[in-house]
Amino acid sequence: MPKLDSSVKNVVNETIAPLGISQIRFFAQKFAKVPGIIKLTLGEPDFNVPEHVKQAAIKSIEDNDSHYSEQRGTMGLRKAVSGYLKQQYGVEYDPENEVIVTIGATEAVFVSLAAIINPGDKVIVPTPTFALYLPIIKVLGGIPIQVDTTPDNFRLTGKKLAEVIEREGEDNVKALILNFPGNPTGYVYSEDQLKEIADVIKDKPMYVLSDEIYAELTYGRKHVSLAKLLPGKTILINGLSKSHAMTGYRIGYVAAPADFVVNAGKMHAYTVTAPSNPAQYAAQEALENGIDDPIEMRKIYQERRDYIVEQLNDIGYNTQLPEGAFYTFSAIPEKLGLNDVEFATKLAEEGKVGVTPGSAFGKGGENHFRMSYASSMEDIQEAMKRLRAFTESLEN
User: Fold this and answer.
1) Distance CA 368, CA 382 (A)
2) Which fold has domain 66-289?
3) Are 154 and 177 in contact (CB under 8 A)?
4) How far is 330 from 308, CA to CA, in rounded Å?
5) Strand, coil or helix: what is 57?
6) What is the pLDDT of residue 88?
7) Residue 148: helix, strand or coil by DSSP?
8) Along the chain (396 residues), what's the average pLDDT of each consecutive run of 10 residues?
9) Which of 69, 154, 156, 268 could form a disulfide with 126 if both were Cys (CB 3.0 to 4.6 A apart)?
């Protein structure tokens, strides 16, 4: 095996080198090595891809659809994205000029931020939130401004946003990242709450990157897209990973004004050339003929959510009822004397339950832990028994 030559040891991108690996993945991989552990770490649906969606991918392969698609994605899929967004959320995008099909929502986030950020630009990131955003901002030379939302029950208020923009200087702030339904909190913004945010931003020289990947997984209220309220400044990110359990197909998309899409499309083309054809045809089938596919999944997730939240609060972990996604986010009682990393590690090694430390989701997540209920009810029930026994052992 080759050993790195000493002459190139220090030839490294100084922006990337200091970055750590994803803490979500780090702890998931670390805890997976514990024998007999129940893993409630990763946010990956435990359902299979709908059969009609799989058949669309198979047909693409059988039809020898093996050539490059258009760089921004097949026109069929872009039309399906446009139709889906209009039908479900009342927002309109021209498939020709305002949609890019990406390799998952991850690439959508990267190319969107790359089209905005210059070195030294600031991006507001309410935390706790998905950990991906912070390193991407740093890689691009930007400065993430973390805003702790825990005092407001995991919500970014219009008042707090205005204060942060004024403090940082509105000419320095280029974007706000809003992830809702939220990972890890499950928080869902109401239309009135979104209007608060839109009112603050509408006259400011900044974008909103609205990551709505969990839009189909809400409980008790319908998702409202920020693009409906602020279409000229919103970069809408979504995909098929959560709604149709298609994480491995890696299909996401960006929908935004055409002038923005020009620059984001350049970065997309230079990075990946084009998405995979079978995956695109599967995604098109999901959006055109699978609008109802998430309904049964959502019903099962809600049953799991109700059970796990009741159990967590009964055991002594203060947990709000999440209105979306498939996570619980719980506070660790001070009396246990453990920070979130210590708690998660000890729970994995001694209690045989894998959870994600809250600090993996930014400063606002410290002293909390995330549980994914994208797992069987049988595993969740056993995990709650183990968590209860583990907690009692700490208290005695």
Assistant:
1) 21
2) Aspartate Aminotransferase; domain 2 (3.40.640)
3) no
4) 11
5) helix
6) 97
7) strand
8) 92 85 85 93 94 98 96 98 98 98 98 97 98 95 97 97 97 98 97 98 97 97 96 98 98 98 97 96 98 97 98 97 98 96 97 97 96 97 98 90
9) 156
3-state secondary structure of 113: helix
Place of tokens 């008790």: 220
Q: Tell me the residue type at 10.
A: N
Q: What is the DSSP letter of 218?
A: B
Write out the two tokens for 301. 């997730």
The amino acid at residue 131 is: A
DSSP letters for 277-294: HHHHHHHHHHHHH-TTHH
**Token pair recorded at residue 102:** 């990406």
Mention the CATH class of domain 6-48+293-395: alpha beta
Where would I find the H helices in the chain?
23-32, 51-62, 75-89, 104-114, 133-139, 158-168, 191-201, 258-272, 277-289, 293-315, 340-346, 377-395
- What are 120-125's contacts with CB under 8 Å, separation 24+? 120/172, 121/172, 121/173, 121/174, 122/168, 122/172, 122/173, 122/174, 123/173, 123/174, 123/175, 123/176, 123/177, 124/161, 124/164, 124/165, 124/168, 124/173, 124/175, 124/176, 124/177, 125/176, 125/177, 125/362
108 touches 239 (CB < 8 A): yes
List the domain boundaries for the chain: 6-48+293-395, 66-289
Q: Cα(first)–Cα(last) distance of the chain, in Å?
A: 51
